[in-house]
Amino acid sequence: MSLPPTRFPVLTVPRRRAWLRLTLSGVALAACAIGIGPRLAHAQAAPTLVEAVQLPAWVERHGDRRAAQPGISLRDGDKAQTARQARMLLRLPDRSQVKLGEATELVIEAMSVKRHGVAQPQEIQSALRLVTGVFRYATDISSKLAGHQRQLNLKLATATVGIRGTDFWSMTDADHDAVCVFEGKVAVQRDSGPDIALEKPGAFWVVFTGQPETPAGQATPDQLAKFIAQAELAPGSGVLVQGGRWRAVLGLLPTAGQAGALRDRLVEAGYPAEVMGKDGRFEVRINQFATEQDARSVVDRLSQQTELGVQDARVALAAG
Under the phi-then-psi rule, with left for phi > 0, alpha for psi from -120 to 50, and beta for the rest, what region is 279? Predict the structure, then answer.
């Protein structure tokens, strides 16, 4: 017995390959049917993949909020959210990375890929909105070498960051908006004044709520180290990855109803639990932990939250 099918499609590596083959075949057939040449550019919606999660975290679609896990595919309008001490790693269609820090909410407002031909560079267009928290974006080296172009915009509370192939950090909360460039350049666009170009490594801009704006400056080495750490996964702290072989077993219940109730409490708390039948009983587990220590840290954490009802929890290595 397992979780009911989620509304967020989970694409494992073989399924992603099969999906890609079917998608490309369908596009080719449609092009032949209406006489479109293979060189004509066309745009199509493209999914963003949840690649890794440091629990607890969630994804939300049309008000349906589920625990985040590696392999979930996000589309336009979806929200990714992390709790305190949590992180999330997203992979964009061009292989670029988005890292979310703790207590962060990111909305994918639009994401599409314009293809000029099967072997031609792609053009990635996206609009992201950082509701609150910490965000880092980094272009993938293979994407750069392939010549892919990108037009990405990140909305903050008071500004929009125009991304043109780079590595940068940003954050927003009730007190301030901030942007720092690690590599490449960005343009900070505001309604209240001209754009601010950040073009050198370490260039830093911040504006505080209710205070006059100050010119962009240069981040110190200590600030740069702090910014980088804010969005990095912490190994051994409950990290899930695709193909992770460790699991946390959080209960072995006599009935499906009891197991399902425990699973639902864990999912609501941001832990992607599932139920599996085992020797006439029902096991509640979380799969895909990167290491034994990642699984053990979650077992220890959840065992202390008595309101969840986790009992006799343990760590196990997945078979095969």
Answer: left
Q: Is 75 exposed, middle or buried (0-12, 13-18, 19+ CB in 10 A)?
A: middle
Q: Residue 13 belongs to what H/E stretch?
A: helix 13-34
Q: What are the tens digits of pLDDT across the range 233-254?
A: 999 999 999 999 999 999 999 9
The tokens of 170 are what?
A: 């940003």
Q: What's the CA gap between 262 and 36, in Å, rounded? A: 53
118: pLDDT strictly greater than 80: no
* Residue 79 dihedral angles phi and psi, to the nearest 5°: -120, 135
DSSP letter, residue 143: H
Looking at the DSSP bridge assignments, the partners of residue 203 are: 218
Beta strands 122-138 and 149-155: pairing type?
Answer: parallel
- Per-residue pLDDT at 27: 40
54 CB-near residues (< 8 Å, 6+ apart):
82, 85, 86, 87, 88, 233, 234, 237, 238, 239, 240
36 phi, psi to nearest 5 deg: -85, 130
C-alpha–C-alpha distance, residues 282 and 289, integer Å:
20
pLDDT band at 181 (very low <50, low <70, confident <90, very high): very high
Instruction: Give the mean pLDDT of 276-305.
Output: 96
At residue 71, φ and ψ (nearest 5 deg) are 100, -15
Task: Supply 290's token pair.
Answer: 């990167």
**Cβ atoms of residues 284 and 265 within 8 Å:** no
d(CA 9, CA 110): 18
| pTM attached to this predicted model | 0.83
Any idea which residue has 């979380």 for tokens? 286
| Residue 260: both structure tokens together | 């399902």
Residue 2 burial (CB count, 10 A): 9
| Amino acid (1-letter code) at residue 274 | E
Length of the chain: 320
